[in-house]
Amino acid sequence: MAVASASPLSAAPSAKPATAPSPPAPASGFLALRARSGGAPRLRPVAAWRRLRVEAIRTQQEKQRTEVPVEDSAPARDAAAPLDGVGIDDPMVPSSDEGWVVRLEQSFNIFATESMIMVLDGVYRDRNYARFFVLETIARVPYFAFISVLHMYETFGWWRRADYLKVHFAQSWNEFHHLSIMEELGGDALWIDCFLARFMAFFYYFMTVAMYMVSPRMAYHFSECVERHAYSTYDKFLKLHEEELKRLPAPEAALNYYLNEDLYLFDEFQSARIPCSRRPKIDNLYDVFVNIRDDEAEHCKTMKACQTHGIRSPHSMPNCLEADSECAIPEDDCEGIIVYKVQNFDDILSFFYVTFFK
Fold it and tell me: Which CDD domains does the entry mention (predicted)?
């Protein structure tokens, strides 16, 4: 889908003419450090302190990499490209190698995703940060739904998968920080944007819960479609506004998350990578969006794995490759309770009898 080619600063009020006696007013809604006519911008005390803090964290991370290098014998799994097999120009189409049930599920998911894209295109044609705020609000909902259903399965003693809970929580934690970044950039400045995002998220949550209980495979594919659209959106945005973004500082929320000393949850949601194989670099706003885009790629890989061979926590088997025999995940891990346990009417009766009365 196309991303508007307008400047990312289009939502901010325009600066005064150069002939005006007073300096231009700062942009509203996010941290914009404007260069003054005399040359390089002057750093305020808060900005100078933040820059010093970032440099200290970066120095400490470089020291840790030197002391504890990542083992070369355990390369990242499918991590050579940001999103292997899912390019920005590849259309979302149902898989021709699957059965008719899977193709039907995928067709519905693609139709629903494209309908949502049409709404976003019409409402947020040239308001990028507001669009990103809505997109991140929606994108984190499925992980709440997955965790809710998995907790219910544990409560009834049906299904216990700690790795799924860990990975899905780490995914929601990552999306939460994406949302915080968009809020700091001014994406939630208008109440109508907040209302639309939360209205869509409310119904999306209950739809995902029902879908996940009936067919986890379908729910994971739906989330993959949303993450794939997010990757494409950020990738196009970066190509259109690269020079502008490189002149702007990184938001505080991005610095606190990507340069944090504790990146356990950052590694946890990237099930296609070994821990510590990816460490973000944040020098400006462009770097922030590059990392957000790459995060969406990792989400997409994880959702793809959930539909096929299942997932394990990256920290539970850090040196495990998908080809290793000890890393094989049972097929049951990819099925939900209803799909896996219920095959016919007799199974339905016995299923509820054993669950509630025995």
Answer: AOX (cd01053)
Give the span between the Cα atoms of 60 and 62, in whole angstroms.
5
If residue 346 lies in a helix (H) or strand (E), which one and from where to where? helix 345-356
272-327 per-position pLDDT tens digit:
888 888 999 999 999 999 999 999 999 999 999 888 877 888 887 655 544 444 44
Whether 43 is in a domain gets the answer no
**What is the Cα gyration radius of the chain?**
22
Q: How many CB atoms lie within 10 A of CB 33?
A: 16
Residue 155 lies in a domain: yes
Map 300-327 to HEC letters.
HHHHHHHHCCCCCCCCCCCCCCCCCHHH
Could you tell me the sign of the dihedral formed by the alpha carbons of 308, 314, 316, 321, in that order?
Answer: positive
Number of domains in the chain: 1
Q: Answer yes or no: is 40 within a domain.
A: no
> What are 149-202's pLDDT values in tens digits?
999 988 888 877 788 999 999 999 999 999 999 999 999 999 999 999 999 999
Of residues 258, 245, 237, the one with CA closest to residue 286: 245
Q: What is the CATH number of the domain that holds 157?
A: 1.20.1260.140
Cβ atoms 92, 114 nearer than 8 A: yes
- Name the DSSP letter for residue 172: H
Q: Look at residue 107 and tell me if it is in a domain.
A: yes
- Owning domain of residue 143: 100-119+127-315+335-357
pTM of the model: 0.69
